[in-house]
Amino acid sequence: MLNACGGNSTAGSNPALSAIARQPPGRSGQRRNAVTRSVRPTSTPATPPLPDNSIPLSQAPERAFLIGVNARETRDLAWPIEDSLDELAQLAETAGAVVVGRTWQRLRDAHPLTYVGKGKLAELTALCQEASADLLIADDELSATQQRSLEEATGLRVADRTTVILDIFAQHAQSREGKLQVELAQARYRLPRLAGEHEALSRLGGGIGLRGPGETRLESDRRRIRRRIAELDRDIATVESQRRVQRRRRARQRVPVIALVGYTNAGKSTLLNALTHSQVRAEDRLFATLDPTTRRLTLPTLRTVLLTDTVGFIRKLPADLVAAFRATLQEVREADVLLHVVDVSHPHALAQALAVFEELEALGAADKLVVTALNKADLLPAPLPTEDLQAHPNPVLISAATRAGFADLLERIEAVLDLGLQPITVTLPYNANDLAQVFRQRGAVEAEEYTRAGLRLEGKIPPELLAMFAPYAS
Ligand SMILES: Nc1nc2c(ncn2[C@@H]2O[C@H](COP(=O)(O)OP(=O)(O)OP(=O)(O)O)[C@@H](O)[C@H]2O)c(=O)[nH]1
Ligand SMILES: [Mg+2]
Question: 374: helix, coil or strand?
Fold first, then answer.
């Protein structure tokens, strides 16, 4: 039995959301038809892109109404539906829409045909009209049938969480690699939904270039989109092999790689900038970073590591997107240590951290050594309870903004890197400066003494360097 019980409000309670809502136009206001654009590759594709079937709307930002289902099966106790809708609102605003209202329904399961129940559907239609909405966004990925029924019932264009995330990625993609990956994810998402798109077009009577026997047109679009997916897969495989070469070069230099991972907007890029004096884009918006950036970092013991910034995660991250970003995410899979950045000032910091671990598991990177940077400590109104701190592996409280806790963080990273190191004492001849350099960069020097026989170094080195230093061991 459906149990209709929904909340309805026009403004979220999340301070982060209000911060985005306060942003001047330019960031969100300029974007039009936010949830319909698709990324085109920089070079002309062999298969021409599909016609943009989006329905042209006015030049003003879209007025989005949000709809959610609090399904019993997937109910996330750590993340109430209102907060999930707050996050959806933040996503919609980042994509360039204005959120004009929201409602949700508690159900055993989302309705397979209409997403919400029949009664709720009528209420939703009225609410959308009242709010003069022109776009409806569902908090879950909709099936083609659910999308079509919602469109028919409300008369609005209907998007879902996945479409919005894909749209943000499309807007933020800068590099050729990023653009290819987003286009692949969009094409994979669109393929099973093509039939619905065509039906919607035939209801609208089509237009120039859109008329014709529906089925034939649908089939040719399907063929074209499949061909494009195959091309994109090939191009991404080339990018992947280039990245593999880079990674192999790094592996030969044997410099440990630390990958920054975390929920979107947690402060990964800010931390990379602060630690390595770089200028990577860091902004108060979701998915600011899509392309991995690697910088050299010298630890207090003079050991050198590479720090790689990566794309952020979010709850219900579209599976197509994760699959399409395999070239980028390979950086995470092959890192020696993960530096998990958590926005500890967020009301759902722990739930966000768990969502990140879920994605890491899906990527096959859950068994990596992890150091947790509990970031934005400067925003905490009170000291963090010890049990909140200890919920994370190797936790260190920091602020990337004020640089508080950096010494502790670097010390913890060194300790984790040292886990596999072997103790050794060597006396290096004074003409073997390069060896001393390798010891300092890759190992951990605990004592250093200039003797008549040469430079005496006591400390730890990675096991693969034991053979190199064995002739000088004492
Ligand atoms: N107060 C405070 N703000 C911070 C801190 N670290 C980052 N921020 C802010 O948080 C916002 C997001 O920072 P980013 O570094 O872009 O976050 P990110 O994890 O790289 O985000 P994506 O790339 O979008 O996934 C920016 O507005 C930063 O200025 C901090 O320690 N304290
Ligand atoms: Mg970033």
Answer: strand
Residue 102 Cβ < 6 Å to ligand 1:
no
271 CA → ligand 1 middle, Å: 8
CA distance linking residue 197 with residue 53, whole number of Å: 8
Strands 63-71 and 444-450: unpaired
CA of 20 to the centre of ligand 1 (A): 13
- C-beta of residue 241 within 8 angstroms of C-beta of residue 349: no
pTM (two decimals): 0.78
Closest ligand to residue 405's CA: 1
Whole-Å CA distances, 109 to 72, 73, 140, 394, 412:
6, 7, 12, 38, 44
CA 99 to CA 62: how far, in whole Å?
8
Separation CA 105–CA 116 (nearest Å): 7
Q: Is the CB of 267 within 6 Å of ligand 1?
A: yes
Opening angle at CA 349, ends 347 and 352, nearest 5: 120
Best-predicted range by mean pLDDT (31-40, 137-146, 300-309, 412-421): 137-146
Position 440 scores a pLDDT of: 85
Best substitution site from 20, 169, 270 to test ligand 1's pocket, by max atoms within 8 Å of Cβ?
Answer: 270
